[in-house]
Write a structure and sequence with these properties.
Chains A, B: This is Sodium/hydrogen exchanger. 2 copies of one chain form a homodimer. The first copy, chain A, is 66% helix and 3% strand. With 665 residues, chain A is mainly α. Chains A and B meet through helix 1, helix 3, strand 1, strand 2 and strand 3 of A and helix 1, helix 3, strand 1, strand 2 and strand 3 of B.
Chain lengths: 665, 665
């Protein structure tokens, strides 16, 4: 391979330019055909996955999620490409090798006085150069994941996060996402460092492996993936608080892990000895973390708010196509803007999605609400399955795997312990402050549901230049496979084993009057963070940014009257009576809202009155509280999977049946 | 610019690899940020276009379509980039220049013994190298149009073509699309050759311009664009036969022009003198045309049929997300498959779209029908406006425009005459055979509506290597601008001036029983081609491929009984009585279908009985026939634009009012 022909400084020869043109064109055409064929492999893989997963759903097999299946098909195709097909590397394509003393992004090559422009694709290591052209062809530039595949996935996660229980559990979710991820990252990093030191001692290590590498590994495997578990939760209609905790945590910790990993990479002490501890570099890394995170957050929120304002002040809703297109473009521009500013596009897109769901969504016409949801649902589905099938493929086609048994065993233990060190202590601390305790079976479920998925993979494949990174990548791949297949596949069993309520149909309960429910559910509201936020959001942000919510004239102090009247839309005045807000049925009753107009301080404290919480999921005591939760369930959620399996769970079914007369009352 | 540093054959030096890595990474990051910013320009342009066009629609300005507006914004940004911003070309990026004796697709560059892979971007001509980095950055690879932007546009056109009047006018549409495009291509080619000879004589020509170039120009400007005119037709609800003729023609002639142009490029006589006439080369070109066209056609139809079969034999409709995803992937795979096989993806995608609309659409769940329509509508909208704003931009940012006044004037005249030579003689010939004549005001309208758009532009920009091609590109750009702004903007006036009926709301007429209408409309069916096709399609293809249509057991001869029972779905048996087919209300009554079961020969000939056709659009005579046409209108059509303008047209309005009592009867 790589036979060098040092053709240097030769005088330009005039050849038949027409003939050469034709040859170049033919070559480009051939290359384009090859690219199309390669992409076709993935499309076919996805088609196959869809058909099989349909069969599984149709026959109600539930042990394998579509992402797990996509990985299996990817594996099979990987094996075929690796051992079945052998396209030798086209020597004529790479024989040219010229010596320059730098590697610019663009290279002008002088061929017989014709200039050709080449763009830098990346570094090829001596041992990397593959002799199988096919394998090289199906290897994507890792940046594809961050620029094309992850943004729709993360946006969709943010866009479908708009749920009462997310905001109600906001404090806990933020704690899990930020503190939990950091704890998990450092815990895993330390354990792995121990493992690496031991390996060095046992001479199991063939290259350098620094502490920052261990921390980086900790960061990337701390990003949990909600996909598989939440798909099953959705189907089984699991307890909504658990759903909110898990979903919220997984969505936000992707963002945290991403920024954390880039801060760790940014840790570069001065001088030659680049792997010692240095306070300044550490502080700089911390600054990078804060700066990038808050910058991306701000950008995402700002574009979301701008979109909300545009849809608020224009009557774009009369033209659904324009509305949907604008929504799509604004959301995409968030990503580009963040990347252009040097922030993290994926993080910005997440917060943009949350803002769009919370504000812009209310201004959209019903058709556009459906359209945007369905559009991002489709993009999410395609991107996700593409990534997972690529994961399967890459186990065999990646050129420089380093599988080290000791490192792998160490990593599995560290990941397990890291998740435990995240969930249990944090839950204990949170339970001290929470009225609605996170029960121990919820904790076990959260522990079990810590799958690793697309984000972990994308972070691991982003840089596979050094020995340490290659070992990490191979190990990460195995961790993803294991968690998706084993933990993902065992979700149903785990739910049943932990006696978590499933099969609660929110439609059944809709006959109870909303006001009744809201009144009772309000009593449970104990999160002060949530209350402050809710009052501010409801009284000021919603009226300014959306057509829902009370008119500003009612919520602003009288001195701001003219401003309030200017900013209030005619629709909002109509809302003065009963609220038409999408969220109104979720959070507070009209009466309570009227009481809290104009004061942000938490006036109605619902403590004390209602503290009898079931501690172990007993059916009798749980009834009225659980009912509240279930009612809010499913309003904005994307119902993607049509079938339902009612598991034979002794404690949940009777309780619902018992409740029904009471509900219908 | 282009300061060469011939750094050749230097011995590899070991530099600080860590530092170099950082520099490379920084460079890649910088380049990525720049790319994001460039893409952001286009997103912002599209956003601006959407907001302005909303304002126009809101205020009911109708003189400028969104594509025309996108071009104007593109022009403005182009001027700013050209004269306002000046980012000097980053010299360090291009200083490296190495001499090799070929231009392979991949180049390995040895920098201090590290190998970097570069991919060929394209040839840069000495005079092309721009000193403004910004202009270079906003210039896309022309293949982007054919691989990313055109496929959704063309697919959408095909997918929305499923209309009764398309099939009823199939013969005429095919004649316009095939014969018309070929006539137009050669006519324009000959005129332009005359122009070029004259220019050579007057020494106005600075480079070579061959007859094949003229023919190529003829081919690319023969592709008419339906967008602008049809959007207005849609809004104004213009006569459906005219709509079908124009839409069908524009959609199909894009495909014909595309294949025609590639056949002309494929014309390469043997030997040195490559621009003489040679029968063999000509025949080869003709063979290429037939082969590529029929190959792409077959591929498109086959994947469409496969999708229909998959959706027929699975119950995928229970899972709309899977269904939509499969539909999208299969349609995309058509494109990739065609490209991988060396056919034309865009053409394959067109016929795939038509097949999907005709068969698969009937098997989809209602939700997926909406989703797929909306998805491709959105993609079409974004891609189209992107292309048109890029067109505006490129007038100022393209680096080697050749504006030759004489060529431009010649081209405008040739395009005008070419369109006339296409429409009028063909209409005359077609009218000899047509029962439902194409009236002269329709002919004028078709003449006027021959806008040039996305396909013409994409074909022109695909290859701008030679002087002739550059001149063609610049001229084409002007033709597109002129036709979109002037002809597009004048559509409403032209309609009113030609006294073509508008403002007919299909909803108003729905109160008449379908059977009544079908019976009457059947009498009009005179196109034998349509009849044969319809019978075959309805009796065999629809039952095999879709859940609609009569059961096969009723349509196949008795000897095929077992096969028919095997292929017939349970749903189809339920259809045995009144048809539930989506098309059933469009074409024939149940009674007639029962009569024609089992015989393909045209048994019910409706000639003679009904020949009183209005010759000049008189309101009284046109009533009952026109009514039939309007009824079928709008069933599968994508209603994109919400507003309606009822023009003060004396003859159309009263006729509807007159009709209404009769209809409601």
């Amino acid at each position: 391979m790589l036979s060098e022909m040092r053709v240097t400084a030769q005088s330009p020869q005039e050849t038949d330019s027409a003939m050469e043109n034709i040859v170049t064109e033919k070559k480009a055409e051939e290359s384009h055909r090859q690219d199309s064929a390669d992409l076709l492999i993935f499309i076919m893989l996805l088609t196959l996955t869809i058909l099989t997963i349909w069969l599984f759903k149709h026959r109600r097999f539930r042990f394998l999620h579509e992402t797990g299946l996509a990985m299996i098909y990817g594996l099979i195709v990987g094996v075929i490409l690796r051992y079945g097909v052998h396209v030798p590397r086209d020597v004529s394509n790479v024989t040219m090798s010229c010596h320059v003393n730098a590697s610019p992004a663009t290279l002008l090559v002088n061929v017989s006085n014709r200039f050709y422009e080449y763009t830098l694709k990346g570094e090829i290591r001596g041992d990397d150069v593959q002799d199988n052209e096919m394998l090289r062809k199906v290897t994507f530039d890792p940046e594809v994941f961050f620029n094309i595949l992850l943004p729709p996935i993360i946006f969709h996660a943010g866009y479908s996060l708009k749920r009462r229980h997310f905001f109600r559990n906001m404090g806990s979710i933020l704690a899990y996402a930020f503190m939990g991820t950091v704890v998990s990252c450092f815990f895993i990093g330390l354990l792995m460092y121990g493992c690496v030191v031991l390996m060095k001692y046992l001479q199991q290590l063939d290259g350098e492996f620094f502490f920052t590498d261990c921390l980086f590994f900790g960061a990337i495997v701390s990003a949990t993936d909600p996909v598989t578990v939440l798909a099953i939760f959705n189907e089984l209609q699991v307890d909504v608080d658990l759903y909110a905790l898990l979903f919220g945590e997984s969505v936000l910790n992707d963002a945290v892990a991403l920024v954390l990993s880039s801060s760790i990479v940014a840790y570069q002490p001065e001088g030659d000895n680049s792997h010692t501890f240095e306070v300044m570099a550490m502080l700089k890394s911390f600054g990078v973390f804060l700066g990038v995170f808050s910058g991306s957050f701000a950008l995402g929120v700002v574009t979301g708010v701008v979109t909300a304002l545009i849809s608020f002040f224009t009557k774009l809703r009369d033209f659904q196509l324009l509305e949907t297109a604008l929504f799509f473009l604004m959301s995409w521009s968030t990503f580009l803007l963040a990347e252009a500013c040097g922030f993290t596009g994926v993080v910005a897109v997440l917060f943009c999605g949350i803002t769009q769901a919370h504000y812009t969504f209310n201004n959209l016409s019903p058709e556009s609400q459906d359209r945007t949801k369905q559009l991002f649902e489709l993009l999410n589905f395609l991107a996700e399955n593409f990534i997972f099938s690529y994961m399967g493929l890459t186990l065999f086609t990646f050129h420089s795997h380093v599988f080290n048994p000791m490192f792998i065993v160490g990593a599995f233990i560290a990941v397990f312990l890291g998740r435990a060190a995240n969930i249990y202590p944090l839950s204990f601390l949170l339970n001290l402050g929470r009225r609605n305790k996170i029960r121990s079976n919820f904790q076990h479920m959260m522990m079990f549901a810590g799958l690793r998925g697309a984000m972990t993979f994308a972070l691991a494949i982003r840089d596979t230049a050094t020995y340490a990174r290659q070992m990490m990548f191979s190990t990460t791949l195995l961790i993803v496979f294991f968690t998706v297949w084993v933990c993902g596949g065992g979700t149903t069993q785990m739910l049943s084993c932990q006696r978590i309520r499933v099969g609660v149909d929110s439609d059944q309960d809709n006959s109870v009057s909303v006001a009744e429910i809201s009144r009772r559910s309000t009593k449970q509201e104990s999160a002060w963070l949530f209350r402050i936020w809710y009052n501010f959001d409801h009284n000021y942000l919603k009226p300014i940014l959306t057509h829902s919510g009370p008119p500003l004239t009612a919520t602003l102090p009288p001195c701001c009257g003219p401003l309030a009247r200017f900013l209030t839309s005619p629709q909002a005045f109509e809302n003065e009576g009963p609220l038409k807000d999408d969220d109104s049925d979720l959070i507070l009753t009209d009466g309570e809202i009227n009481l809290s107009y104009g004061d942000i301080t938490v006036s109605t404290d619902a403590t004390g009155a209602h503290s009898a919480f079931p501690s172990a999921g007993g059916a009798g005591a749980a009834t009225s509280d659980d009912l509240d939760k279930e009612l809010a369930y499913g309003d904005h959620e994307l119902v993607m999977r049509g079938t339902r399996l009612v598991l034979p769970m002794d404690d949940s079914e009777p309780s619902i049946t018992e409740l029904q007369p009471h509900i219908r009352m």
